[in-house]
Amino acid sequence: MTPWVPDCLLSWDVDIGQQALFDGAFQKLLAFTGGDLRLVYVIFLTVAHSLPTILINGTHYLIRLVLGDAALEPYRWQAGRQPPPALVRKCIMYVGAAHILSPLLPYSMFPRAYGYHPHLFSAPVPGILTLLLQYVVAFLFTDGIFYWTHRLLHTPMLYRWIHKQHHQFYVTIGLAAEYAHPIELLFGNVLPVFFASVVFRYHIAAFSSWVFIAMAGTTFHHSGFFFPLAPSDEFHDFHHSHVVCNFGSSPMWDWLCGTDKQWQDKRRGGSVVKVVQQSNTDVAGPAVLPPLSLGTAAVVAVPRGRAARSPSPAKSSAARRKRSTSRK
Ligand SMILES: [Zn+2]
Ligand SMILES: [Zn+2]
Predict the structure, then answer these.
(1) May I have one GO cellular component term (predicted)?
(2) 10-residue mean pLDDT series, the chain (328 residues)
(3) 234 alpha carbon – ligand 2 mean position (Å)
(4) Deepest in the core among 70, 239, 275, 284, taking most CB within 10 A?
(5) Ligand 1 centre and the CA of 150: distance in Å?
(6) pTM listed for this prediction
(7) Ligand showing the shortest atom-to-Cα distance for residue 151
(8) How much distance in Å is there from the Cα of 53 to the middle of ligand 1?
């Protein structure tokens, strides 16, 4: 039941097969679980969470296996750079464990979610226009909540305690999307994606398909590649390589709040001021960042047209030495 969807939209709505697709899956799951709606809920959301991770990362792995790293080098946002193998292994173990444990969340949520929205399964499956409207609403809430929780995570204390785990990836891979402290996973990732679907009582078909889209999006955002015909995103890659700008899942809030200065400089290709790189090789975590402000970030000037390139470790060390000297 989506009472906020305008009647005029509902009257024009169309079904292109999604209703039969959902009903078929729902009936099979109902039979498989012996009519246990809680388990059906858990399976829908678990598949929506894990399937994009497996498909996209698995495809990238196969492409690398077949073509080799050298052939893919022209498609990397940060050419010539890869995350440390030890960090990648740690990430695979961590994200694997997170996916194994992830069904606990919808399992514990279900009684309250179903009590709040008893028509979660029984309402008509939304038509395409309704689905698109719900995706737009879900995107706006996801984008806004993600931006502000992410900026909070960049305050000195929360960064040091929570967010620096995610920023160990200076050069990202798809799995790094979920390589984050459990508190960040819950409040910085799950909350933004779930918010609109739960609060506005989305049908489980709309809810789970939005989770699928959001998971696919964040996996592509962290992939580190820009393959032809595949979604890609240099915006968040730039956040990982520069740390103090581009906090949103899209550029909208950063543009509104002026937290995309380095990104805009880079896009203009003009004289660029670049934040001192805080390398992921520093496993203890990068330096503390200024609270909700770019104004006090340590910066160094870099030559025209080199904004997208990260400084060499030697230059990073020099920059850090220069910064620490200037503080004295
Ligand atoms: Zn961050
Ligand atoms: Zn990230």
Answers:
(1) membrane
(2) 64 80 92 95 97 95 89 84 93 97 96 91 88 95 97 96 95 95 97 96 95 95 82 85 91 94 82 42 37 34 36 40 41
(3) 11
(4) 239
(5) 6
(6) 0.80
(7) 1
(8) 20
